[in-house]
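Below is our example:
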Amino acid sequence: MEENYKLEKEYKVPVKMFSEAYLAFQKKFIYPKSYIYMSIFAVIAFIMFVFGILVMNDASKRQKYITYLAFLMACAFAFREWYNPKKKHRNLTDSVRSLGEPVYKIGIADKYVDISTVSDDKSDLSDEDKILTEEEDPLPEKSRINIDEKFQLLEYDDFFLILSGNEVVYILPKDGFSNDELNIVRNIKN
C-alpha cells in the first residue's frame, strides 16, 4: 500500500542523543511527579522524626519501634522516588547502547506519523549471522501515531520529541534534515 507522505526520511539516533532526549522527556513528565512524592515522603519522615523526639519519650518500646519503622519507611520511599527515574534512564540508555545504531524511517502524512525500523546495526556480524538474525528476529512493524489531541511535538536544540500521550515517546534528530524538512516536522499539527 503506497502511503501519501509529505516527508519520508531515514535517520539514526545516537546513544548520546537518546540519553539527552530521554532526560528531557523525564524532566517534563516524570520528575515533577517524582519530586512531589519525594517531598511528601520527606515531610512525613521529618514529622515522624520530630514526633519520635518530642512525644515518644515516655512511650513503650513497641511504640518507639513503630515510630522508628515509619520514619525509615518514609525515608526509603523518598529515596526510591529520587532513584527510580535515574535507574530507568541508565537502564534504557544501556539497552539502546546494546542495540547499536539501527536505521529508522519517519513518514509524515496529514493525519498520522509513521515510524519504523528499517534495519538493525549489524556491522559487527558475519554474513551468515546477519541472515540468521533476520530470520529469527524480524524487524518490528511500523508504529502509527495519529495526530489528535494526545499528539505532542516538543522541539529542542538537537532533536524533536514526538509523543502520543505521556507514555510513548519517539526521538527525531535534527541532524541530516534540511530546513524545509524541519519545517514540515514543525508544522505536523497544522
Summary: Strands lie at 7-12, 103-108, 112-119, 143-146, 151-155, 159-164, 168-173.
